[in-house]
Amino acid sequence: MKSFFLVLFLSVMFFILLPGVAFAIPVVPSFTPTPSASPSAIPTETPTVIPLRSNLTTENPQTVEPLQRILESQKVESVFPFNFIKVAIRNSVEAGVPVNTLVLILLLPLVASVIAATRQLIGLRGFGIFLPASLSVVFVATGPIVGIIMFLIIVFVSTAARMILRRFKIKLQYLPRMALILWAVSVGVLSVLFLTPIFRFPGLTNVSIFAVLILALLTEDFIRIQLGKSVKTAIRLTYETIILSVISYLFLTYSPIQTLVLLNPEVYLLFILIFDVILGRYTGLRVMELWRFRKLIWNK
User: Fold this and answer.
1) Angle at 70 between CA 69 and CA 75, to 5 degrees
2) Hey, is 5 helix, strand or coil?
3) Is there a domain that residue 101 lies in?
4) What are the Cα distances from residue 69, in Å, to 57, 243, 251, 262?
5) What total of structural domains would you count in the chain?
6) pLDDT tens digits along 226-285
7) Domain-located, residue 152
8) Does the predicted model carry a pTM greater than 0.90?
9) What CA–CA distance (Å, rounded) separates 57 from 100?
């Protein structure tokens, strides 16, 4: 129980100190061209400018410029004793490393700690740590709605392919069977992309091969759980993975956290290290277990 309260205290202190870090995303002004007078006095239409969505996985002005302004707002005079990571970040940016990539890499330990904490303290399992963290990055790249839609489509297609193989009693080894399921997933994703001109859903046009591969990797675990345990267990682990990924996505896209990791990377990494060590020493009941055995606990 001491470890539980220590973890809870560190989490509360983290979010108490977090609002003190100010961050504002600058609004990129849009210039409307002034139509010049013409002899026929025909009015010209003003083109509609669609703003880009801030996306840490891509290098665009809307993402990079606010992060660079954060770095410029902090002056680092000396490297030692506590500024070596700050200096390394600035040297890397000057050498051409995208600042959004550095922020995303710095945020990955936080995402892993959040997923581990939900597993140890709450009881949400999911498919480990790597897949929910990867899926959260996919949500950053495509948006959570498009990411969940694509994930559900891929799971549906892979499950249908597996059921067809079982229905017609086609016996294959594991790797050829997974290759066939990946073939079905590719055809399913292509079908959805081919229907984009009909449905005109703007998010589907930004789907990258990176997102599809991560979703296909999650599908492999879904099929493996189906084969090893049951469909019910696979479905439960799948929606728990989606919940963990959405929570991680919120952490990845929360602007004050991005500011915190850029301006105070040494303190941030040290905090995550201490948090993980304390979390790893917790061996008590989880919140879902407390709810499951609530009658036995309250009767005592």
Assistant:
1) 100
2) helix
3) no
4) 18, 33, 21, 11
5) 1
6) 767 777 887 888 888 889 999 999 999 999 999 999 999 999 999 999 999 999 998 888
7) yes
8) no
9) 7
